[in-house]
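Tutorial handout. Part one gives the primary structure; part two gives the three-dimensional structure as tokens.
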Amino acid sequence: MAITTPVNTPTVATVKPTVGTARIPLDHPNSVFLRIARWWSTRKYGAMLEPALAALHNRKVLTTMSLLELSVPRWSSLDPDLRDLAEGAVSAEIGCSWCIDFGYFLSRNRGMDPAKLEALADWRASDVYTPLERQVLEYAEAMTSTPPTVTDEMVEGLRASLSDEQLVELTAMIAVENLRSRTNAALGLTSQGFKAHCEVPNR
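Part two.
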């Protein structure tokens, strides 16, 4: 069934918690702050996001990460598909199933081609990507490698199609996704089942 949700506003999903897989407790004493956070998250996404429950053990960390996440959507020079593909490549490279699951949910609700999302784990063997998208995926993987394997040629290739403003945004977006994916993977946060509740937007 098609949805009429505006762009950038994901369809709410009915998602079950996966607290048993986490390496840190995700249950907290009831409080006004937790009730507000749970209400906002459930209203927007259909569930309380487990990374937020993990970060709630340290309010200063949660505050800083929340401010970052509220700021990132305001970055607007880069094509959203390129941003989403870069994030997905990072999640796949690190193996963060929570980020892959949630990222798929957000990207599909924004209208991204599901074939491009499904092929991310083996993008080099797929023919669904444009030359620029392949450059972005390669760059995301190279930045995520330890140590990074970014080359001058990679950056020059991107600069042939992207402005310096867009390149900086792409680089920062890949770094942000590394923060998310590495944090979630280390804390044992796995898929909450968002992908199973994706809707197909109107086109």
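Part three, for discussion. The longest helix spans residues 164-186. DSSP finds nine helices and two strands in the chain.
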